[in-house]
Description:
CATH architecture: 2-Layer Sandwich
CATH topology: hypothetical protein PF0899 fold
Shape: elongated
Bound molecules: zinc ion
Helix content: 25-40%
Radius of gyration: 17 Å
Number of helices: 2
Number of domains: 1
Number of strands: 6
Strand content: 25-35%
Strand order of the largest sheet: 2-1-6
Amino acid sequence: MHELALSQDIVEMLTRLAAREGINTISRVVLEVGEISGVEPEALAFCFDAATRSTPVQGAELCIENIAVVGVCRGCAANFPCAGGLAPCPQCGAYGATIIQGAELRLKEFEGE
Ligand SMILES: [Zn+2]
C-alpha cells in the first residue's frame, strides 16, 4: 500500500502549505498522476481520504488528473506519446525513447480559505 504513504506525504505537504498561506480549511486538491507512476488513482483517493482525517485537508474534494506518457526520441529528439515507453519514434522509427512525462505524482494546485 504505498498509496497510503504517498497520501500521508501529500497531506503533510498540504498542511504545511496551508499554515504558510494562512489557510484553515482546504476545500479542493488537484493531483497529477502519471500513467506509469505506479499509483492506482482509486487506491490513492481511498488512502487520501483516510490520511486527511483531523487535518486541515479533511473533507477536501480530490481531483486526480491522469498524465499521459510522453517520450523524447534519442535519435531525432521528437516528442511523442508512448504508453509503457516501448513505442518506436513516429518520425524516425528508433526505439528507446527517454520518458520525460508520465512517471510523476505531483500536487498541481489546491484551494481553501
Ligand atoms: Zn526519432
